[in-house]
Each structure stands twice: as structure tokens, then as C-alpha cells.
């Protein structure tokens, strides 16, 4: 069985993002796939059913309140929930597991991805390059972590000049490899102790998966607009305004927000040399989200 897995716990904006992602998947797969299901880990299943209806391919695993906290690990980080959810899915819905963040939009069918997962391939969203030569934060992380060692599962992990960081907006593996997730958790907890930055979770996945085999990224399959948190209220307004108009109209309105283009524009601005960003701020040309008309 193939499973698309979403974590949509907490705010209505996160649920709206997840619904947009799910609707974009159905746009790529308009015919139900008998070997593919969607698992939505949420505290508000009714909110999804109001939009999606009672679809037999969508499941809402029940999670006890204390389990949510336990999944945050010793570091008590929300980012670590992904690990617990993947472990739960592997135990209760075995097969090919494809976790994705809610702020994603499908560009093409994941059918070939699932075939590669079945063959034993690991996937994460995007290779962000070597820490030593990455963005400002990556280089800072490299400087703080180099020279340290972390022991997990009989292996010793280090950050070197060749360490690559993968974005964890997508995490995919076969369920019989779920034993690796305990080691990812242990490594992440040690990394957070060494340097308490949010990206330690994705670094832990990157290090442990790379020690097991090649990690492939998937930007051609979906957009991941991780840098547009301010756009969340606009997505929610689309659902509150047009939620009763059907999925086709919802998608048309959501696509009009033009999030993939805005994602690229903001990323280009973010990656400008600091002096250029400062000049733009001083001259009133700082990049800003447009005023969304919903």
C-alpha cells in the first residue's frame, strides 16, 4: 500500500494548507488509486471531512493527547513529530510511506515515486547543498558542529565538509526501514543538545539516511512554499469563502494566489547579497507579499 502522510495538528491555517495540498494531489490523480491512501494526522478530522467528504481512501489515525507530547522527544521540538508519525504509519499502515509538509502543492502524480520507494530508495524534498557552502544558517551550523561526534546505532556521525543538508518537507521510505527512525530521533536529540537550531531535525534525517543509501530529492514533483508563512491566512480565507463551492472552484481560487511564483520571488530576494537587500529596504523596494484578493 502507498501512503501519503500529512501532519495537520493545531491551527486552522495548517489544516487549510493540508487541504490545498490534498486537493492538488487529486488534481493529478482524478481517478482513485486502489493502492494509494491518504493519512491525515490531525486533531480536527471533521474540518477535513467537511471539504473532502467521506472518502474511503482518506484515514484519520486516532492519536492520544499524551502521544503528541511524547513524539516531541527529549528536545521537546514540534519538528520531531514527523518521526513519531512515520513510526506510527509504518506500524499501522505498512508499505511505501511518503510524508509531506502541509505547505506543498503537487505538480505531478507521485506514482513513480512510490515505485522507487518500493525499490528501497530514500527521498527528501530538496538537496540544499553542503553545509559548508550553503546559506548563512547552514554555514553557521557547520562552524558550530564540526569537530563533534554523535554515536547512534553503533555508528559514529560527524559533520564534515561533504555533509549535505536535505529539506525535510518530504520524507519517504519503505516501512520495513522504519527502524532507522529511532536512530534519527536519537541523533536529532543529540544534535539539539549540541546546537539548538530548528534545522537539527532535517540534518538528522540527512545524516542517517545518507549513511544507509542515496537520498534523492523531488522538487519536480511538488512545490514547497516553506518561506511564505504569511500567506496562510489567505489560503484559509479561500476555504472559508468558497468551501461549499466544490473542489474545482476551490482549486481555481487557490491557484490564483500564485504561491509557486511568490515562493521563487521571495527566495531570490532572500538570496541576494546582504548589501543589495539593505539597499532595497532603504529605497522602499523590500520584497513583500502582495495584497491577496480572495
Automatic annotation (TrEMBL):
<protein>
    <recommendedName>
        <fullName>Nucleotide-diphospho-sugar transferase domain-containing protein</fullName>
    </recommendedName>
</protein>
<dbReference type="InterPro" id="IPR029044">
    <property type="entry name" value="Nucleotide-diphossugar_trans"/>
</dbReference>
Amino acid at each position: 500500500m502507498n501512503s501519503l502522510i500529512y501532519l495537520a495538528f493545531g491551527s486552522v491555517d495548517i489544516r487549510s494548507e493540508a487541504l490545498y495540498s490534498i486537493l492538488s494531489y487529486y488534481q493529478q490523480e482524478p481517478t482513485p488509486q486502489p493502492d494509494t491512501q491518504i493519512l491525515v494526522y490531525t486533531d480536527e478530522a471533521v474540518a477535513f471531512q467537511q471539504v473532502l467528504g467521506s472518502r474511503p481512501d482518506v484515514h484519520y489515525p486516532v492519536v492520544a493527547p499524551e502521544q503528541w507530547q511524547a513524539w516531541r522527544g527529549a528536545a521537546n521540538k514540534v519538528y520531531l513529530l514527523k518521526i513519531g508519525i512515520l513510526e506510527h504509519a509504518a506500524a499501522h499502515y505498512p508499505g511505501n510511506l511518503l510524508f509531506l509538509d502541509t505547505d506543498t502543492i503537487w505538480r505531478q502524480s507521485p506514482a513513480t515515486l512510490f515505485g522507487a520507494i518500493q525499490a528501497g530508495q530514500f527521498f527528501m524534498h530538496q538537496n540544499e547543498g553542503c553545509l559548508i557552502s550553503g546559506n548563512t544558517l547552514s554555514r553557521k551550523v557547520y562552524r558550530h558542529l564540526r569537530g563533534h561526534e554523535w554515536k547512534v546505532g553503533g555508528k559514529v556521525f560527524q559533520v564534515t565538509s561533504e555533509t549535505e543538508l536535505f529539506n525535510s518537507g518530504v520524507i519517504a521510505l519503505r516501512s520495513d526501514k522504519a527502524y532507522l527512525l529511532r536512530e534519527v530521533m536519537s541523533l536529532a536529540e543529540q544534535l539539539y543538545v549540541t546546537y539548538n537550531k530548528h534545522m537539527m531535525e532535517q540534518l538528522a534525517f540527512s545524516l542517517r539516511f545518507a549513511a544507509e543509501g542515496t537520498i534523492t530529492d523531488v522538487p519536480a514533483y511538488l512545490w514547497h512554499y516553506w518561506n511564505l508563512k504569511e500567506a496562510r491566512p489567505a489560503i484559509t480565507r479561500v476555504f472559508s469563502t468558497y468551501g461549499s463551492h466544490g473542489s474545482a472552484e476551490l482549486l481555481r481560487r487557490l491557484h490564483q494566489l500564485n504561491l509557486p511564483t511568490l515562493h521563487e520571488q521571495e527566495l531570490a530576494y532572500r538570496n541576494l547579497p546582504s548589501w543589495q537587500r539593505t539597499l532595497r529596504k532603504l529605497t522602499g523596494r523590500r520584497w513583500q507579499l502582495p495584497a491577496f484578493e480572495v
